[in-house]
Amino acid sequence: MSKTVRYLITAFFLVLSTISHGLALKEGAPERYTVKKGDTLWDISERYTDDAWQWPNIWYQNPQIKDPHLIFPGDIIGLMSIGGEMKVAVVERGMESRTVKMTPTARIEPIESAIPTIPMDAIMPFITRNRIVKRGELEGAPYILSAGGGRIMNGAGGVAYGRGDFSSGLANAYGIFRASTVYRDPITEEVLGLEAKEIGLANVISNEKDIVKLDLVKTSQQVTEGDRLLTTENRQLVTRFQPKAPDEYVDGFIISVPGGVTQIGQYSMIVINKGKRDGVSEGAVLDIMKRGEIVRDRTKEEKVRLPAEKAGQMMVFRAYEKLSYALVVKATRALNVGDQVRSPF
Q1: Which domains can be identified in the chain, with CATH numbers?
Q2: Model confidence over 143-164: pLDDT tens digits?
Q3: Cα(340)–Cα(288) distance, integer angstroms
Q4: CA dist., res. 138 & res. 192, Å (int)
């Protein structure tokens, strides 16, 4: 029997069990809990169940409460008996949820003060400043010709000049990117994507033929000749992910830890070698499996590897075609690049 078939059968019985009996509450789950600033839905869910990624199964969205899917600091979470089953629900709204905050931008969804599913400060740089591009996309993009004033580098507040093919249309602004890491599949060696790191943002002042004059609005590093220009992405920044199992059985690996960190723990950023083509999307939860030790079988006089053991869980927050960025939401042991990730059972 294939892994995919086993996964589908297991998932089917898991759904039946959840529908029939409801997700089990953790022993000693608090009858009341006041939400604090800095809390996440994942943290709160772990107070009530050992299977935090399935929290929607125990959450009761009271239709009598305005915005029942949004939880704010000061709200009181409690246990309620609904249809003979114990559910978790908002039993009282705090002052924060009664306050409407106006903001000049509407790109972050939903309301900014509502607590997120996972810590957004940990993942925001990888949502806003990193981008995965296809092979050749960065090399063919317009580039910084001069940092301005005869200098080879420049920063925010300065002027730079870009050159390239703008025949498809000239944008009002460009992100300034620099090639970072080439990700490859550890098994097949397939190139999964190139990480382009954003180092700045520039507005177009003027253009003449294939050269544009740029106002460097903001920079995180000095802009240098050869840096590439990519059109800015106008994406909504999702702050509330719906935890779920992948659409298909997933069996992959951690292939990188951004920032050069070697040890991986809770709230570490990781890159996995599975993406949209593998049934992985934002919110997908995977188990992290620690490779078993290699031991010597003295009976057969040979070395064998022990079975992998579950050592944590991760949630995907940005999925690309062939790879994904994820956050480690739970870790019971130190994790490493090369550890296996697979669909939860």
Answers
A1: 3-102 (no CATH), 127-234 (no CATH), 251-342 (2.40.10.410)
A2: 999 987 666 668 888 999 999 9
A3: 6
A4: 14
- If we measure between CA atoms, which residue out of 207, 216, 245 comes closest to residue 12? 245
Give CA–CA dist 277/84, Å, rounded. Answer: 41
Q: Report the pLDDT value the prediction gives residue 341, as an integer from 0 to 100.
A: 97
Does residue 218 surpass a pLDDT of 70? yes
30 upstream amide cis, omega within 30 of 0: no
User: What are the pLDDT digits (tens) for 22-81?
Assistant: 567 888 889 999 999 989 989 998 899 888 888 877 888 777 666 666 889 999 998 988
Burial 161-183 (b: 16+ CB within 10 A, else e): bbebebeeeeeeebbbbbebbeb
Query: Residue 117 — pLDDT band, cuts 50, 70, 90?
Result: confident
Residue 66: the pLDDT is: 67
The 3-state secondary structure of the chain, one letter per residue: CCHHHHHHHHHHHHHHHHHHHCCCCCCCCCCEEECCCCCCHHHHHHHHCCCHHHHHHCECCCCCCCCCCCCCCCCEEEEEEECCEEEEEEEECCCHHHCCCCCCCCCEECCCCCCCCCCHHHHHHHHHCEEEECCCCCCCCCEEEECCCCCCEECCCCEEEEECCCCCCCCCEEEEEEEEEEEECCCCCCEEEEEEEEEEEEEEEEEECCEEEEEEEEECCCEECCCEEEECCCCCEECCCCCECCCCCCEEEEEECCCCCCCECCCCEEEECCCHHHCCCCCEEEEEEECCCEEEECCCCEEEECCCEEEEEEEEEEECCCCEEEEEEEECCCECCCCEEECCC
What whole-number distance in Å separates Cα of residue 147 and Cα of residue 225? 6
- Cα–Cα distance between 269 and 257 in angstroms, integer? 6
